[in-house]
Amino acid sequence: MTLRSSLLLRLRSALQRLFGVSGWQSMLLWSIVAGLLGTLATEGFRAALRGFEHLVLGPGDSLVAMARALPWWARIAFPAAGGLVAGGLLVLARRVAVRSATSDYMEAIVLGDGRIPVTQTLVRSASSLVSIGTGGSIGREGSMVQLAALAASLLGRVFRFPVERLRLLVACGAAAGLTAAYNAPIAGAFFVAEIVLGSIVMESVGPILIAAVVANIVMRALPGYQPPYQMPVFPELHGAEIPLFALLGVLLGFAAAGFLRALQGSRALFARLPFALPWRLALGGLAMGLVSVPWPEVWGNGYSVVNAVLHTPWTWTLIAMVLAAKLVATLATAGSGAVGGVFTPALFFGCMVGALFGHAAQALWPHAVSAPYAYAVVGMGAFLAGATQAPLMAILMIFEMTLNYQVMLPLMLAGVIAYFVARSANAGSMYEITLRRREQQDEQLRLRALHIRDLVQPAQTVVGPEADREAMSRLFLQHPVKYLYVVDAHQRYLGVVPLSALGTAAAEVRAADLLSRAIAPITADTSLGEALQRFLEHLGERLPVIESAANPVLLGVAAKSALLATYVRLSEV
Asked: Which partner for 234 in 177, 270, 359, 404 could form a disulfide, CB atoms 3.0-4.6 Å apart?
């Protein structure tokens, strides 16, 4: 250990003694620092992105406004050139990657040791900045959260945090980054708890919540702050509209599943192309640029378009065309391999599909339903719930954005329905870590539901009551066992013949003469826990397994090693 590391360890211990707190309690204090650093990292990326956009594209309030000011050929050229440069940076990121480390903050929290590589993360963030700054149809929140997590990881590494607390500190940084990106501290905390950690336990959620609150306070204090979405006042609903929001949830559940499958297909298609990574990103940028010639609204993450749909009347034809164009642009950008999030595009698609649904509802019942923007707001949360497979986080995010209790009932209804519809469609999730955790949970449930029947192996040392000494001796010589199992003509278990008894028996002895009840069999429906207890009482490697006490047909044997191996697998998943 270096002198600097020793001093930092002493400093950390001195701070804990000063405040009179334990190690885990001190995480509440460190989460404040992680929230501050995460917010500064997020704001740093936002400022760098804004400066890059103005430098390359010129003045403008949003990427859509900048795109409208460009000639048609520039709308094609900038995304294509940006994809080429971004792809080159990704190749560089691969070359500087550290094999033992993971660059993804989710994996660093769940599977890794909380250490996020600095150089690789910065180069990948630069690639993301170029992709987004030249019009790429992806969200900037991915790199923002990644950089916030990196800042927290560096903090923990400087002060030599143990692995468990370093992971939690990285989670605090990620929550701060998401909070700073969306002005939703509760949803930011529950995003990390529900999607990344997979559990809501106060020992971990407490520091994450504090980091999110600190991030929100710091973000609001920075000059020029404004929330990304300007939400309208949600109208008071009539009871007759509730079935419509339930139907909207069903529609958006299928829409989320379709989007995820389309995204997987786009990534697979680009991966099969015989081009190097920079040229694949350039091709994705070219496709997006061509779409943007008639529809500049596809540029960027869609903040300005969503705000326009929520506050100004759009015709259903315009909404449908922009929605289709944005879908193509997002699949081209994200599918080609550009670094960025699809969290914000998911909010975009939910808004547009919800608005279309609202227009259809108004056309059928013009005086009985709310304005289309109400369905657009609920649609944002429902689509997000289906795509992320995190309904609680999605509901809280939209509620925090609106701060209107009227939205909760339709939002909860549509969000939960969309979640179950998308899950039933087996389309997966936007985040691979969610799929891994679900596979682990399914494997745990499968293993816990096992009975001894599932571990039965054929019994090779079985004899009948009339077996003679020679036959029994031959089996003992062939198999390193201490007992032979005796069954009748109907394969019903009768008992065992011990090796020790055969050694002193007469030459004309039969199995029935040496029959012993020294080993009681276990039934096929015995749970693994009960079977383990039986093996603890039994010194041998195997136990006979029968169908049931009423029907003692010998099915085979259960091995102690197989049972222990199953328990090891259960503890690993």
From this structure: 404
- Spatial distance between the Cα atoms of 483 and 472, rounded to a whole number of angstroms: 10
Q: What's the pLDDT tens digit per position in 299-355?
A: 988 899 999 999 999 999 999 999 999 999 999 999 999 998 888 999 999 999 999
Pairwise CA distance, residues 234 & 358, whole Å: 14
**What is the arithmetic mean of pLDDT over 212-225?**
87
Compute CA distances 196 → 172, 280, 349, 508, whole Å.
Answer: 11, 30, 23, 70
The predicted-structure confidence for 4-43, as pLDDT tens digits, reads as follows: 555 555 655 655 555 555 556 678 888 999 999 999 999 9
3-state secondary structure of 546: strand
Nearest to 148 by CA among 181, 186, 111: 181
CATH entry, 239-432, from 1.20.120.530, 1.10.3080.10, 1.25.40.10, 3.30.450.40: 1.10.3080.10
Residue entry with tokens 């250490």 = 115
pLDDT for 103-120, tens place per residue? Answer: 677 777 777 778 888 999
pTM, whole model, 2 decimals? 0.77
Phi, psi of 523 (to 5 degrees): -85, 160
Cα gap 209→239, rounded to integer Å: 35
From CA 172, how far away is CA 203, in angstroms rounded?
Answer: 12
Domain residue spans of the chain: 3-221, 239-432, 452-572
Q: Could you tell me which of 337, 300, 277, 291 has the C-alpha nearest to residue 140?
A: 300
Query: Where do we find the tokens 């056309």?
Result: 363
The SS3 call for residue 385 is helix
The answer to whether 260 touches 432, Cβ cutoff 8 Å, is: no
What's the gap between Cα 367 and its chain centre?
42
Task: Identify the residue with better confidence: 70 or 183.
Answer: 70
Residue 453 DSSP label:
G
Q: CA-to-CA distance for 34 and 44, rounded, in angstroms?
A: 15
Count Cβ atoms below 10 Å from residue 224 Cβ, excluding itself.
8
